[in-house]
Amino acid sequence: MKILIVDDFSTMRRIIRNLLRDLGYNNTHEADDGNSALPVLKSGDFDFLVTDWNMPGMSGIELLRAVRAEPALSALPVLMVTAEQKREQIVEAAGAGVNGYIVKPFTAATLQEKIEKIFERVGAPA
Amino acid sequence: MGESAAIVELASDGQCLEHARALVAALEEGDGARALESIDALTTLRETALYRELGQLTRELHDLLNAFYDDPKFSALAVHEIPTTRERLLHVIALTQDAADRTLTAVEGCAPLAKDVSERAERLGERWQRFCERKLTVEEFRQLSGDVSKYLAHTAAAAESLHAGLSDVVVAQEYQDLTGQIIKRVVTLVDDVEQRLVAFVTMAARHVNPGDEPVMERGATSRAKPGSELVSGQDEVDDLLSSLGF
């Protein structure tokens, strides 16, 4: 499974990369904000997007909306991993079509659970 | 308004009562001229009180501003402390970033080692099990024997590396001491600025709304607007999402 990790903090991208590798997902790529992530998503066949909310340039919610608006990407499973805990933001993400929402700090177990849940609903790719 | 303190003063001023009585007497006698005189006198008293109040406010403000300008700490704040604080906080970011990088590097080095040891043990374990069940041929046993020796040597070396990696992780935590000290200094500066601002606000409020001094809570955070409350923890996030049908 080809995964794109988007977060402006390199440490967080690294942590997520490590956790995904521990879960057996080795094919990961990274971007540090929405603006650089979108063209990467359009050009490569990614199966999963993990993104933060607060990023300079294009934020996570804007990236989510852009992905959903793009015909080739609209069905891409998206997991938000963010420090944002405001109710209205969670509701907004749900409304914009996010598939999962994890608040930081989080555990490896939570990440695994949410990924499995997403692919249960969506149907895991090969 | 600044008047109310002045009015309180007026009410207890003997002159005020005198003139008021004179006014009433003049009105009762129908003496318009004397009545106007009394009204003028009362008005003058009121204005005098107001001017006194205004004068006091101006003086206090002037003194406070002078105290700020003359206080070497205040100009030090503006010119030196605050820019330095910005540098200090940026430095904290750099230190924590470095510590995280070093820790993750050590972990990324150790994880494959641990995995390898575990996988080898598992493979050996299968054959060892067959040995215990007396299912190995002599040749297979010889092979197993050699592999066990190799495994023991390999594991000893891996343990060394893991130990070294863990030490690296421990050492990387040293950042906390440094960042803690830096942040404490920043907190001291923030306290200082807060006190001065409170002095300003309190003084201003005393004259704008006497008797209604604002209560400055230490560390007060803005009250959350309804609808923007925070959830606390992943469980609440999950509950909220499932209530929306996710």
SSE blueprint and pairings:
The complex is a heterodimer of chains A (126) and B (246).
Chain A: E1 3-6, H1 10-22, E2 28-31, H2 34-43, E3 48-51, H3 60-69, E4 78-82, H4 87-95, E5 100-103, H5 108-122
Parallel strand pairs in A: 1-2, 1-3, 3-4, 4-5
Helix pairs in contact in A: 2-3
Chain B: H1 3-11, H2 14-28, H3 32-70, H4 72-132, H5 138-172, H6 175-208, H7 234-243
Question: In a nutshell, what does this entry contain?
Answer:
Chain A has about 130 residues and is an alpha/beta fold.
Describe the structure.
The complex is a heterodimer of chains A (about 130) and B (about 250). Chain A has helices at about 10-20, 35-45, 60-70, 85-95, 110-120; strands spanning about 5, 30, 50, 80, 100-105. By secondary structure, chain A is an alpha/beta fold. In chain A, helix 4 (about 85-95) links the parallel strand 4 (about 80) and strand 5. Chain A is globular and about 30 Å long. The N and C termini of chain A lie close together (about 5 Å). The mean pLDDT of chain A is about 90. Chain B is mainly α and about 250 residues long. Chain B is about 85% helix and about 0% strand. In chain B, helix 4 packs antiparallel against helix 5.
Q: What is the multimeric organization of the chains shown?
A: heterodimer
The tally of strands of chain B reads: 0
On the 0-100 scale, what is the average pLDDT of chain A?
91
How many distinct helices of chain B?
7
Evaluate the radius of gyration of chain A. Answer: 13 Å
The structural class of chain B is mainly alpha
The low-confidence parts of chain A are: none
Net shape of chain A:
globular
Beta-strand residue fraction of chain A: 15-25%
Strand content of chain B: under 5%
Q: Let me know the number of strands of chain A.
A: 5
Report on the biggest sheet of chain A.
Answer: 5 strands, parallel
The string of secondary-structure elements of chain A, in order, is: EHEHEHEHEH
Largest sheet of chain B: none
